[in-house]
Amino acid sequence: MAKQVVVIGAVALGPKAACRFKRLEPESSVIMIDESRIISYGGCGIPYYISGDVSDARELQSTTFHMVRDARFFEQVKGVHVLTRTRALEIDRAARQVLIKDLESGKEDRLNYDKLVLATGSSPRKISLPGSNLENVFTVSGLEEAVKIKDSISRGSINRAVVIGAGFIGLEMAEALIDLWGIDTTVVEIAPQILPGFTSMAMSRMAKKVMEDNGVRFLLNEKVLELAGENSVSGVVTDKRELEADLVVMAVGVQPNSELARQAGLKISNQGAIIVDEYMRTSDPDIYAGGDCVEIANLVTGKAGYFPLGSMANRQGRVIGTNLAGGQDVFPGAVGSFAVKLFDHGVVGTGLSLEKAREEGYDALSTFVVQFDKSHFYPDNDLIYLELVFENNTGRILGLQGISTNKDGLKGRVDAVAVLLPHQPTTKDISNLELAYSPPFSSAMDALNNLGHTAENVLQGRNKEIGPEDFVRLWETRDQQDIIFLDCRDLENAAEYLQKYPDKWRNVSNESMSSNLDKVPRAETIVLVCNTGGRSYESQLRLRKIGIDNTLNVSGGMKLLKKWGLDI
Amino acid sequence: MAKQVVVIGAVALGPKAACRFKRLEPESSVIMIDESRIISYGGCGIPYYISGDVSDARELQSTTFHMVRDARFFEQVKGVHVLTRTRALEIDRAARQVLIKDLESGKEDRLNYDKLVLATGSSPRKISLPGSNLENVFTVSGLEEAVKIKDSISRGSINRAVVIGAGFIGLEMAEALIDLWGIDTTVVEIAPQILPGFTSMAMSRMAKKVMEDNGVRFLLNEKVLELAGENSVSGVVTDKRELEADLVVMAVGVQPNSELARQAGLKISNQGAIIVDEYMRTSDPDIYAGGDCVEIANLVTGKAGYFPLGSMANRQGRVIGTNLAGGQDVFPGAVGSFAVKLFDHGVVGTGLSLEKAREEGYDALSTFVVQFDKSHFYPDNDLIYLELVFENNTGRILGLQGISTNKDGLKGRVDAVAVLLPHQPTTKDISNLELAYSPPFSSAMDALNNLGHTAENVLQGRNKEIGPEDFVRLWETRDQQDIIFLDCRDLENAAEYLQKYPDKWRNVSNESMSSNLDKVPRAETIVLVCNTGGRSYESQLRLRKIGIDNTLNVSGGMKLLKKWGLDI
Fold first, then answer.
1. Of the CATH numbers 2.160.20.10, 3.30.300.30, 2.30.38.10, 3.40.250.10, which one belongs to the domain with range A465-564?
2. Which of A182, A309, B377, B535 could be bridged to A59 by S-S, CB 3.0 to 4.6 A?
3. What is the pTM of this model?
């Protein structure tokens, strides 16, 4: 039987649900409304439009075959009727009607529905700052706003920008501003790290260093108090200083647009997101919701999660489209994978970071592996830096994060673990993960397998290791301690440190250690370092065999410490 | 309690097992023997040594920190005693002894063992050909042989090479010969396709085309009868012709080296591989075996499988090392993932190809998706061509294969499915697979998700599609049929074909179809084409709605057909 479906919101989820439904039930009718004039664009592409990688805003709104996905396109090609510049004012669930208003004419109207889809998305979180209404203060809220930012920049009068917030969008915007436009860019973040909540402290340090090496300046642990200026913004006042700025981008996260749902009496979470079941139905079975306005299950923690991401929205849209047509597709939840390009590096992760896992109450550990993406003898290989987060005792995998200049190679490894996370894999599964292999693609023992091995050795107490933060703590207090840093590499690698730190740095290469045990220094604490942590692990075993067990192995070795920004 | 472990074979699995065991039980002793002088090298790297990507053979034998893994290295660094140029003649299981022979001195000796590891590997399969003992006829059997091949080539007298066998090694060798050395290279393969048993006919056509575009010549369905020449090879005689050749590489697969195990009365499969349990133990619990000489479970078919691959050997070696030390690690089997670089392309797969799945008795289907690796608006994106193999009715995923110039991006997608295969995923799981997303890494709806969608639509009878072979069959017999090829793209794309084939080619773009239904041609069979199969699928639904259901949608569209080599 033909239905009338109304879809509120015409970006990502809305169009996907509408079109899928129309393909399944061409005899039914769909009306999709949106407040904006521009609809169905790739919002995640906005930073690349600002950076010039995408030259024309319309490309973000186009199909692969270069048709603009505007109201006319949906009408003629997809059979979906679209009302732009139209706001949904109210849902009358009893009457199954949506009260709408034409934002141009001000005229109100009512749309009947058999099934309703809420694709209301999210809005940039607003921090109430004096001066936030000044000119050249922007959020990244949509394509229309993005066009304004680019217009403002391309007039050439912008010299200094401040980005507030070091989340994904903030970092992508910072890269866009400095990379194409050469604008002196500072990112101010209230948290003690970039990408807070997503990456570990260690990984965020590595990511920050990449950005800094490319000219972005960061002010962490710093709170913006107000924006200064007369008409146009001229400065940013923080709790620590005043920054000059003729452009300010506020990117402090997003919040679900759930007001309409709340007013209609639908169940809303404490965090303000619409609650849906695994069929993407709200508490009213005739109303579906998905995308940035809903919360779904976090398949790692089992708790509710909020994942405002275009890929989620698209996949949820298809599930809704299927179910509108009487299907029973489920969207079981998400593990929270992410990918972000930062200049020539990718930072990719899934599941929980170490700190997040501990926050969630897990007895969590992490370990690092630094390894080439390809067989080490194969030319043009890139290093991949991976951090595996796992539960103590059980060895359950909680998350994986990485950084590398081989962005696709990194993402492939993270994805391989991400898709397994709902199956609750353990370190043993990672140890023995079957990944396609030949030398131009990976080592015979891939970095991921080695990560599993290392985690197992840590769990079994065989590998007693420390991460970069612990290393630095020990290093900085070395003069107050009976501590020695034993370099397990060849003299060639160690020489520089031996010379600089004659009291604290020693060298016995792992390979020569068995015949040089008398040269191994004794101290209350012996920190073992090599290039990536593998040889120093062997040394740790070697020393344990002769009764020296007060050693700490630096996970990921000097390569990791340097990537992290250690300069000793 | 300290043990005596003997390891027979010192490449890949042997060293891995030996070193892992020694790390776990440093008090035990390990003797590793090998017939060759050169041990512990990356055999998979041989084609890249031939091609010059790896300039020195020693690099294949070196650690990441540039130490050569020779007998001395294992002795001093790993505590593993190595006997090179030593053959194991016989295993005396009752006495727990291995009878060995020094190939230099001819002296025989006996080694006692508590536990024995068979890492005897595989040998190139020999076809009994007249002339195979001629000079410049090689197999790719080890590093010493590889050095001979390279020496022979670098003397500059080789102009024409014939590679017998179009498996992975054959193709890698062909690339090496033509790419660096400019040698006129022909590959002769007895099967009707390259990579027989691994890739589908369709995928192998695409791979072959890449090789041909780079100058490699293929002779399929052709059997080599003899090699001609006096001292050195001068030609190859097949059942169809005689080829000039001053170098012949025989690469017709490998066979497990299981003779020693067979003589010792261990269980051997009909295919000649050593049978092991999931702890990698042979039928004698004191004897472990792994790598190219064993068979393990195929986790897709549930039957025994043979996976001679360096990555398998390494991972199995670690399991054996752990279990030698009293551990209980398991190696549950493999799904059979592979990756091969062919010039600027990668071909990567996992599980079963379409033909292989049908051979195994599955009611198997496959579908193609051709999509950009990144968001389509993001610059510098590469196309990924994927083929998903799934079971009719159940939708169970049986395999995935692909080809792309984004080798790592392709491998990442295949790996994400590979690691799930043991969990028996269905098309729905692929539809909704959570992969890390942002525009520089993928589309919001990744190619893999779309592959799941397409498979679902096929399973539900909604998308009635054909692959490239069926298309060609229909195309070639078009004059004997009431058939029309309806191009669902814009006139701009269709014009060329309309002009060339005015009788059979028609054009009504998908986007204009609803208002041009009168222009849709009628015929007994209507084949719908667009660029990648998406718009033509929409057209198929559109036409079905008005009662035209005799349509066939070309999976993967014109992009796939062209990649496949169709020239119309």
1. 3.40.250.10
2. B377
3. 0.97
